[in-house]
Each structure stands twice: as structure tokens, then as C-alpha cells.
Specification:
Shape: elongated
Structural class: mainly alpha
Largest sheet: none
Helix content: 40-55%
Keywords: Plasmid
Number of strands: 0
Length: 411
């Protein structure tokens, strides 16, 4: 974890109090029975910091929930609540989502922006055109760029997409502390925008070169983007809403790309969480989000019978799969490759007979179903120096029957 990575529960980089309009000279005003006392305000701060539900705070202070929400907003309080969503929370989210900045909704509900995104996804809410940036969002963006905080983490903090941040930064005329050397702000903004859209590095480089930006090499391009925070996570705990979204994506065979954008998670984070939850897709690939055909019982039977007895590349061609797919499946089934399996007493006896009767190491390896190199190494380590010998095809049964030597295991 980098020293610049944000704390998982951080909800604000810099305070941004609302600007107050100019007012006339103060005058005496009548006493209001519902005025907030300093004691009530302090009590509200303590309960809010303890992650108490707004309805419970209202009951404790003897005020309405709307009054508590308004006071929390006026005080600029923020938190990353882990409480279960209530019907009132859902109703508020449905009413405001897509029309107001996610950061403003998150502040009023006392939750993080990523939690709001996750809940909106579960409720099937759609975003409209991006709302105007607020002063609080601008303050977090400016402070994050000044500190060199990874851009993806800033986006998750304030609830804006990856590309939107770089665009807003260009509008504000600010440059990230980790701006790559000899890169213009426009080049950085365009690279982050294309990366946020899911393009691979080579595709981004080709697109930008066609648009007139300098041609970059992959050796420098990837590290430059990663230094800005692309494809980076920092250990935020998964919420029940995020788990539910991921579970639904696997159950319905949906793309995981929107989840990476909305939740601020990397592909690796989604993959590891899916493994932890034992998720498998219900689409054509029943074993999850992966390429290649599913393994049938007949495929696994062939694999069990022939793995290690024939060359892996030949077995892969027979099964119409890649060599990596064969070895991965074999590992999952707990199969041990025949060329590295322990030598049995029968094989040790055959080795001794072959050495005495002039059988070549290559013929013995073929009879035992092993690699000549590994067999030669084993023979040398046990004092058998075969040297060069003429080749003669021989089977294991014929070799064992050629000389009646006592079984080493019986000695």
C-alpha cells in the first residue's frame, strides 16, 4: 500500500463550508422554541460519529428526522455508515438520484458515495446527465491533486467517474502531483478518460497517437497511468449492498465492467470477492466468468487417465484446449504429473535390471512413461551410470521378466 493511499473509512480530504451570503447588521429577534442549543448540537455530533441512525438521533433529541438531516448538512458532517438501509433512506435515494450530485446525497444520508452507488444499482436506478460540481467536490479534487492521491480513489471518495475527474481538473487548471514528466494536462486527461472507459493500454496509445498526442511506449505508458491511480484499490471493506450487486451480476451473467466503475473496485478485487463468496455464473460458462468451454465428465476422465502419461501439449490438442487450461484443471483435480511422480518399488527394480542388462535410458524412460532427462538424473543420483547404449524397444513387463532379481521392497 502506498503512503498516499487513503484510509478506507475516510470521507473527506478537506473541509468545504458553504459560502454564506452577505447579511445586514444583526438585530434582536424573538426567541424560537425549536432553536438548537450548544448541548443539542454536541449531542448530535457524538451520535452521528457513533454511526447512529438519523431516525434514532431524532428520537433521542426529540426532533423530526428531516430536522436532523438538515442540521447534519448545515454542520458539514460526513461519515461512512455501515447501517442497513431503511425504507426512508431508499425513498430519499430514489427521489434524488440522478438529479443531484452523489456527494450531496451521500452527505444527507450519512453514507459514502460508493455505498450510494451500490444501493442505487440494487434499486435499478439510472443516472441522468452529470449534475453540476459542488464546492465540496471541487475542494476534495483540488486537495487530492495537491497531495498526489490516486485519481481513482478521489473519484470513489466524491462519487464521480474516472474520466470526469480529469476533465474537471483541466477546467480548474490544476495538475496532479504525480503528473508524468513531459505530459501535458490534456494528454493526462485524455489517457485517464480512455482508461476509465475500459480500453487496454495498447488501444489507448493507438487512439491518442491518431488524435495527435505524442507516441508513447508501453514501458512508460503503463507505469505513468498506474502512478496516477488507474487500476488501483486500497482495501475498502465490502458492504452488503456491494456483495448483493456482485452476486446478482454472477447470477444473471451481467458484465462486471459497470461495477468496477461504480464501486471503484479493480477487476482483481471483484474476482477475489467472487471467489470468497463462491459465486458461479448461470450463463453458458457455468463455472464462472472465464473463457473456454466447460469441462465435461468425459473430458475429466481423459485428463485423469492420460495426464502425465502423454505430453501435455498433445493432451491439450486432443482435448482442444490450451496447455495452461489442462494444467490448471489438473491442479484443481489434485492430479500429480506423471513425470514428477515418486518412483515406485517396481520402477526402481526396473531401473536396476535395465542397468544390468544394457537397456538404454531412453528405452527405459519410454517403458516407464517418464522423461529421459528426469530419469537420467534420478539414475545418476542413485549410482547408475548408463552412458551411451544401443536403442531397443522394450516394455516394462518384458523388462521385469528378463531377469528374476529380488524385489528391493522385500529385502
Amino acid at each position: 500500500m502506498s503512503a498516499l493511499d487513503l484510509d478506507a473509512d475516510l470521507v473527506e480530504l478537506a473541509p468545504a463550508p458553504s459560502a454564506t451570503a452577505a447579511v445586514a447588521a444583526l438585530r434582536e429577534m424573538a426567541f424560537r422554541a425549536d432553536a438548537w442549543t450548544p448541548q443539542e448540537t454536541e449531542r448530535l455530533r457524538r451520535l452521528f460519529a457513533a454511526d447512529t441512525a438519523l431516525a434514532d438521533i431524532a428520537a433521542d433529541l426529540g426532533r423530526g428526522r428531516a430536522a436532523i438531516a438538515e442540521r447534519v448538512t448545515l454542520l458539514g458532517l460526513r461519515r461512512n455508515s455501515t447501517r442497513t438501509w431503511t425504507e426512508l433512506d431508499d425513498a430519499e435515494l430514489v427521489r434524488r438520484y440522478g438529479d443531484e450530485p452523489t456527494a450531496a446525497i451521500a452527505s444527507d444520508l450519512g453514507r459514502s458515495c460508493s455505498a450510494v452507488y451500490a444501493r442505487a444499482g440494487l434499486l435499478g436506478l439510472a443516472e441522468s446527465n452529470p449534475p453540476q460540481w459542488t464546492a465540496w467536490e471541487d475542494a476534495q479534487l483540488i486537495e487530492g491533486y495537491r497531495r498526489g492521491v490516486p485519481v481513482r480513489q478521489i473519484g470513489t471518495l466524491i462519487g464521480r467517474p474516472f474520466g470526469g475527474l480529469s476533465s474537471r481538473a483541466a477546467t480548474l487548471g490544476i495538475v496532479h502531483a504525480n503528473q508524468p514528466a513531459r505530459w501535458s494536462p490534456e494528454e493526462t486527461a485524455r489517457a485517464l478518460e480512455l482508461a476509465g472507459a475500459g480500453h487496454r493500454y495498447h488501444a489507448i496509445m493507438a487512439i491518442m497517437a491518431s488524435e495527435g498526442f505524442p507516441e508513447r511506449t508501453i514501458r512508460g505508458f503503463g507505469p505513468a497511468l498506474r502512478k496516477l491511480g488507474y487500476g488501483r484499490g486500497w482495501g475498502r471493506a465490502w458492504t452488503p449492498e456491494e456483495d448483493a450487486l456482485l452476486t446478482r451480476a454472477y447470477a444473471e451473467g451481467l458484465s462486471l465492467t459497470p461495477l468496477r466503475t461504480q464501486l471503484g473496485r479493480t477487476a482483481g478485487s471483484l474476482r477475489h470477492r467472487a471467489e470468497y463468496l463462491a459465486l458461479r455464473g448461470s450463463h453458458a460458462n457455468r463455472n464462472g466468468f472465464r473463457q473456454g468451454p466447460d469441462w465435461t465428465e468425459d473430458d475429466e476422465k481423459i485428463l485423469r487417465e492420460q495426464y502425465g502419461r502423454v505430453l501435455t501439449r498433445e493432451l491439450a490438442a486432443r482435448l482442444e484446449r490450451t496447455k495452461a487450461a489442462v494444467t490448471t484443471r489438473a491442479n484443481l483435480l489434485g492430479l500429480v504429473h506423471g513425470y514428477i511422480r515418486p518412483f515406485s518399488d517396481e520402477e526402481i527394480r526396473a531401473l536396476d535390471i535395465a542397468y544390468r542388462t544394457g537397456v538404454s535410458i531412453a528405452d527405459l524412460a519410454e517403458a516407464l512413461g517418464r522423461k529421459p532427462m528426469s530419469l537420467s538424473k534420478y539414475a545418476s543420483n542413485h549410482g547408475y551410470a548408463f552412458g551411451r547404449r544401443p536403442r531397443h524397444a522394450i516394455t516394462l513387463a518384458a523388462l521385469l521378466a528378463s531377469e528374476a532379481l529380488p524385489d528391493p521392497a522385500a529385502a
